[in-house]
Design goal:
The structure holds two protein chains of two kinds. Chain A is α/β, with parallel strands linked by helices. Helix content of chain A is 40%, strand content 19%. Chain A contains five helices and five strands, in the order E-H-E-H-E-H-E-H-E-H. The chains are: A alpha/beta, B alpha/beta.
Chain lengths: 129, 593
C-alpha cells in the first residue's frame, strides 16, 4: 500500500442546497484518515472535474437530492474522460430511485449510495476499490 | 349591597375546596395572583429524595434502565420524573397566561381549534404549471384548505429554464415558472380571493409576489384582497437551505422593500415566513431551531426599523415556520417556548404595542429528514406523531409529508394519505378540542422553560457577535448546526439512536414501485414557451422596465412597483434577477466543514 493518503473530492453538482449528507460524509471520510476536499454548493460538472484534476484526487463523491442526478452525474464522468482523467473514480449519493441506478452505473458512476447508507459502507467501499 | 351569589353557594353543589392541610402546616389554596408557590415545599423535596433512594435506588441495582442517560435532541438530559420541583413557582399570568393573550404561551387565538382547525396546506408543485394546477385542484377537492407552492430550483435561484445552470433541474423539486404566463396557468380556475397561498420563494420573492398580484388582478381581485405568505427568509438560505442569490445587504433591502410595499398595498399578506424548518432539517436541535429562527427574526425587525419603518406597521405580518419532529414532548415545549420568547422580544426589545405584533403565528411541516427509504409505510406513523406535536403545539397551518418522500416527489395516492393523517388527527383524535392540552404537565412546563433559557443564551451570544448576519458570515451558525448533525448521524450509525427499519428491525424488501417521475420534456417545453413569449411581448417596454429596475437597485426607491410593471409586460424571472445580479453581486457561501 502506498504511503500517500487517498484524496477525495466531495461535490454538490447543480442547484440543490441539501448539504447535510455531503458534509457528513466529507467529515466522516476525513475522520477515517482520507484527505477530503469539499466544493460547497452549486458546482457545474465542469468545475467539479477541474477541481478533481487540480486537487489530484483519486475519488469524486457527488451528492444530489434534487432529482437532477441523471443529467449531472454522467456529465462529470464524461468531462473527466475528455480531460484524460478517467482514472479518477466517481461515486454518488442522495435521493436516487433504484430504477435510475443501472443507467448511472452504465454511464461510469462506480457506486451509488442511497438514503440510510452508513459512512462505514462508503469507507469500506473506497478502501476495497 | 346585595350579596353576590356564587356558583359554589348554589344548593346541591360542592363547597369550595378547603385549605389543604399538609404536614401539620396549614397551606392556603392558590390565591387570585395564581402564583403556584404552595406546590414546592421542603416536604415535597424530601419526599422526592426518599422516593429516589427508597424506591428507585434498589430497583436500579437489580434492573438498570435502558440507557445510562436519556437525552433530548439538544443534548439536554431528560429526568426520570418531573415534579412540581422542576417547574418551581409559576407566575401563571406572566409565564403562561391565556390563549390570545400575552405572552401567548398557550396559543395565539382565544378559541384556537375549537373555532376552526389549522389550515391544511400541502406543499406541492412539480413539472410545469398545468400539471401542478391539476395537483392543486385535486388537493382542494380532497379537503385541503390552503395552497402551498413548491417552485423548482431554477425558479428559486432566479434562472429561467433555458439557463445553463438549470440543466437537469427544470420542474424537478417544484414547478417551473419563467414568466407571468406560467403563473396564469398555475392558478387557472383557482379563485385568489378565496384561497390563501403560501409560496416557498426567497431570493426572488419580490418577482413571484409581483406575478401573484398580477394574476389576481387579471381575475378581478385587488392586491388588498389576496392573502397568503411568501417565505422571503434569506438568512436561513445562507444557513441551511442554499437558494440564495445576492449578498446579505441587498437581500435585506429586498425584504424590507416588500415589508414597506405590502404594508400599504397588500395588507393581508404575510410578508415573510421566518423559517426554522430547514435549520432543523440541516441537523439543528430543537433548541437551536428556536434560537436561530428567532435570531433571524430579530435581524429582520432591526433591518426594517433601520430603514425607518414603524414596528407596529409591519410586525403583525411576520410569520414563522417550524419543523414538527419525532420527540413529541420536546416539540410541543419548543412551540410554546418560541411563542413566549417572540412575544417578550417584540415587547421588551422592540417596544411593539399592538397585540398582533407580539404573536408568533406559525406554519409547520413534519420532518422530511425523518422519512426513511426503508419500509416507507412506517413513515405514515412518524408523520402521525409529528402531526400531534404540531397540533398540540398550536400550529396555524400544517403540511404533512408523504411516505415516499425519501425516494421521490410524492404520488397522488401518498399525498392523500398524508392529508388524511391531518384530517384524522383533526376530526377523530380529540386533541384539537381543548386548547394547549399538555400545559401544566411538569415535564412540558419544565422543558418549555429550559428551551427558552438555552435559546435565549444563544441569542445573547449572537447579539454579542454583532447580530445574525455577522454570525452567518463567520460560519458560526453553520458550524453549530453541523456539530449537531454529525453527532446525530454517529448516534444512528452506532445504533445508540434507533431508527426503526433502518438500523433495527430491518427486512429484505423490494424497491418501491410507481414513484413519481418528472419528464425531461418539461424543460424543452418551458424553453419553447420562453422563446414564444419573448417574440410576442413588447420588447421595448420590457427593456425600459429592466433599465428602471437597474436604476432603482442602484438607488433607494422601493423595487416592488417597478418589478410589478415588468412582470406584467412578461419580463422573465431570469431577466429581472440577472439585472439584480449585475447590480447587487452574488453571494458565495463560506464553506465550513
Amino acid at each position: 500500500m502506498s504511503n500517500k493518503k487517498t484524496r477525495i473530492l466531495i461535490a454538490k453538482p447543480g442547484l440543490d442546497g441539501h448539504d447535510r449528507g455531503a458534509k457528513f460524509i466529507a467529515r466522516a471520510l476525513r475522520d477515517a484518515g482520507f484527505e477530503v476536499i469539499y466544493t460547497g454548493l452549486r458546482q457545474t460538472p465542469e468545475a467539479i472535474a477541474s477541481a478533481a484534476i487540480q486537487e489530484d484526487v483519486q475519488w469524486v463523491g457527488l451528492s444530489c437530492l434534487s432529482g437532477a442526478h441523471n443529467s449531472l452525474f454522467p456529465k462529470v464522468v464524461e468531462i473527466l474522460k475528455q480531460k484524460q482523467a478517467e482514472d479518477i473514480k466517481v461515486f454518488g449519493g442522495g435521493v436516487i430511485p433504484s430504477d435510475d441506478i443501472p443507467g448511472l452505473k452504465e454511464a461510469g458512476i462506480k457506486e451509488i449510495f442511497t438514503p440510510g447508507a452508513t459512512s462505514k459502507s462508503v469507507i469500506d467501499y473506497i478502501n476495497s476499490n | 349591597m346585595k350579596p353576590v351569589k356564587t356558583a359554589a353557594k348554589k344548593k346541591g353543589q360542592k363547597k369550595p375546596a378547603p385549605a389543604i392541610k399538609r404536614a401539620g402546616k396549614k397551606i392556603q389554596a392558590p390565591q387570585p395572583s395564581m402564583v403556584n408557590k404552595a406546590l414546592v415545599t421542603d416536604d415535597l423535596k424530601k419526599q422526592i429524595a426518599e422516593w429516589q433512594s427508597n424506591s428507585v435506588g434498589p430497583l436500579l441495582a437489580k434492573y438498570p434502565e435502558r440507557k445510562e442517560k436519556f437525552l433530548l435532541t439538544s443534548g439536554a438530559e431528560i429526568n426520570r420524573l418531573y415534579t412540581p420541583e422542576d417547574v418551581g413557582e409559576v407566575d401563571y399570568p406572566k409565564e403562561l397566561g391565556f390563549p390570545g393573550q400575552y405572552p401567548y404561551t398557550r396559543g395565539v387565538q382565544p378559541t384556537m381549534y375549537r373555532g376552526k382547525f389549522w389550515t391544511m396546506r400541502q406543499y406541492a408543485g412539480f413539472g410545469d404549471a398545468a400539471e401542478s394546477n391539476k395537483r392543486y385542484k385535486y388537493l382542494l377537492a380532497q379537503g385541503q384548505t390552503g395552497l402551498s407552492i413548491a417552485f423548482d430550483l431554477p425558479t428559486q435561484i432566479g434562472y429561467d429554464s433555458d439557463h445553463p445552470m438549470s440543466t437537469g433541474e427544470v420542474g424537478k423539486v417544484g414547478v417551473a415558472i419563467d414568466s407571468l404566463a406560467d403563473m396564469e396557468i398555475l392558478f387557472d380556475g383557482i379563485p385568489l380571493d378565496k384561497v390563501s397561498t403560501s409560496m416557498t420563494i426567497n431570493a426572488p420573492a419580490s418577482v413571484l409576489l409581483a406575478m401573484y398580484i398580477a394574476v389576481a388582478e387579471k381575475q378581478g381581485v385587488s392586491s388588498s384582497q389576496i392573502h397568503g405568505t411568501i417565505q422571503n427568509d434569506i438568512l436561513k438560505e445562507y444557513i441551511a437551505r442554499g437558494t440564495y442569490i445576492f449578498p446579505p445587504k441587498p437581500s435585506m433591502r429586498l425584504i424590507t422593500d416588500i415589508f414597506e410595499y405590502c404594508a400599504k398595498e397588500v395588507p393581508k399578506w404575510n410578508t415573510i415566513s421566518i423559517s426554522g424548518y430547514h435549520i432543523r432539517e440541516a441537523g439543528a436541535s430543537a433548541t437551536q431551531e428556536v434560537a436561530f429562527t428567532l435570531a433571524d427574526g430579530i435581524a429582520y425587525v432591526q433591518a426594517a426599523l433601520d430603514t425607518g419603518l414603524n414596528v407596529d406597521d409591519f410586525a403583525s405580518r411576520l410569520s414563522f415556520f417550524f419543523n414538527a419532529n419525532n420527540n413529541l414532548f420536546e416539540e410541543v415545549a419548543k412551540f410554546r417556548a418560541a411563542r413566549r420568547m417572540w412575544a417578550r422580544i417584540m415587547k421588551e426589545r422592540f417596544n411593539a404595542q399592538k397585540p398582533s405584533s407580539l404573536m408568533l403565528r406559525f406554519h409547520s411541516q413534519t420532518a422530511g429528514s425523518t422519512m426513511t427509504a426503508q419500509q416507507p409505510d412506517n413513515n405514515i406513523v412518524r408523520v402521525t406523531i409529528q402531526t400531534l406535536a404540531a397540533v398540540m403545539g398550536g400550529a396555524q397551518s400544517l403540511h404533512t409529508n408523504s411516505k415516499d418522500e425519501a425516494l421521490a416527489l410524492p404520488t397522488e395516492d401518498s399525498v392523500r394519505v398524508a392529508l388524511r393523517t391531518q384530517q384524522i388527527v383533526a376530526y377523530e383524535s380529540g386533541v384539537a378540542d381543548t386548547i394547549d392540552p399538555l400545559a401544566g404537565s411538569y415535564y412540558i412546563e419544565a422543558k418549555t422553560n429550559e428551551i427558552e433559557k438555552t435559546a435565549m443564551e444563544y441569542i445573547n451570544k449572537i447579539d454579542k457577535m454583532g447580530g445574525m448576519v455577522r454570525a452567518v458570515e463567520k460560519g458560526y451558525i453553520q458550524s453549530e448546526i453541523q456539530e449537531s448533525a454529525y453527532r446525530y448521524q454517529l448516534d444512528v450509525e452506532s445504533k445508540e439512536r434507533v431508527v426503526v427499519g433502518v438500523n433495527k428491525f430491518t427486512i429484505q424488501e423490494e424497491p418501491m414501485k410507481n414513484l413519481l417521475k418528472v419528464s425531461q420534456a418539461v424543460a424543452e417545453a418551458q424553453i419553447k414557451k420562453i422563446n414564444e413569449i419573448k417574440a410576442k411581448r413588447d420588447n421595448i417596454a420590457v427593456q425600459s422596465s429592466l433599465e428602471k429596475i437597474r436604476q432603482a437597485a442602484q438607488g433607494k426607491d422601493n423595487l416592488m412597483p417597478i418589478i410589478l410593471t415588468a412582470v406584467k409586460q412578461y419580463a422573465t424571472l431570469g431577466e429581472i434577477c440577472q439585472v439584480l445580479r449585475e447590480e447587487f453581486g452574488e453571494y458565495r457561501e463560506s464553506v465550513v466543514l
